[in-house]
Amino acid sequence: MAFVYRTLFYIIGLIILSFGVSMTIKAGLGTGAWDALNVGLSKTVGLTPGSWVVIVGIVMIFVNAALVKRRPDLAAIITLLITGVLIDFWLLRVFDDLVVAGYAKQFGVFVLGMVALSFGLAVYLQPKFPLIPIDNFMMALRERFGLNLMVAKTLGEVFALSAAFIFKGPIGIGTLIVTFAIGPLIQLFYPYCEKLYNKLITAAR
Q1: Residues of the chain with confidence (pLDDT) below 70
Q2: Per-residue DSSP letter, 74
Q3: What's the half-sphere exposure (Cβ side, CA atoms, 13 Å) at 107?
Q4: CA separation (Å) from 24 to 7, 82, 84, 166, 183?
Q5: Can you give the pLDDT at residue 120?
Q6: What pLDDT does 50 receive?
């Protein structure tokens, strides 16, 4: 039963996370740096945003492995595939015809997306299953160069933002908000998710 709860937290977390990513994209105010890169690649090169989540993620698996001089975490490909499929599901199936007009509505949809994104991250992190490689990139930079987490995260965001700019991704005020707000929001949700997760796992033993 414990494994069932772990799997549920993992899948539900990724569903909520991908919904949040899709909402920040649809809001049209700019997205997180990595999401902006995926959308930019989709528009300039082709393929869907979800496909680029997988492709960029696989590249980052090997970049992370090179940084820390360990074997690539190939199990993370499963997480990438699920996330990529879910993002395309929300963007291209559920909300394909959604057009958000007006700054107030854009901001509302963006806030909804950012909160969902943060909550989904807090949920999917609980079972300690393989992480999305961009979440591991910060840790790899920290380990390789002896940086603190804030500097490592900032470097990762600057790298993604630079690439997103090259590929004409959706960079805007939302990008700035996501960069500074995601961390505190995850910190807000994480303890509650952790408490519920531990309670369910303990009861299942």
Answers
A1: 149-150
A2: T
A3: 5
A4: 26, 19, 15, 20, 16
A5: 93
A6: 94
